[in-house]
Amino acid sequence: MFKKIANWLAQKRKERAEAVMFERAVVVRFDDEHISSTYPDGTIQSISWHEINCVAIETNDSGPWGADVWWLLEGTDKHCTYPQGATGDPEALDEYSKRLPEFRDRAVIEAMSCTSNARFICWERRHAA
Q: Given CB 3.0 to 4.6 Å as the disulfide criterion, which of 47, 91, 93, 112 pairs with 78?
């Protein structure tokens, strides 16, 4: 029984390490015009700041073994998504407060304490002044 538990724990540690490596391998970049996420497979998602209609965070119950917090920048025709922990994630968060009037830091705090499947709206164009 002990060996079975030890093997399970070892597998879960491996899964978490792989999830962390994936999260860090996603790169978030921004400039005055756009924000983008580049995935390890070469996929690039990009949206201009003025095209963003909604910034949301989706959480899921895959943590701590999987990527359980996702940023979603949604426009009418484009989107940009990335996991929390992506390279550039903290800098992007700072940028949201600067560029998006009435960005809801409280929604970010609520999302970070959530361990279930949920969606938190941090900013919506129609509600911004």
A: 47
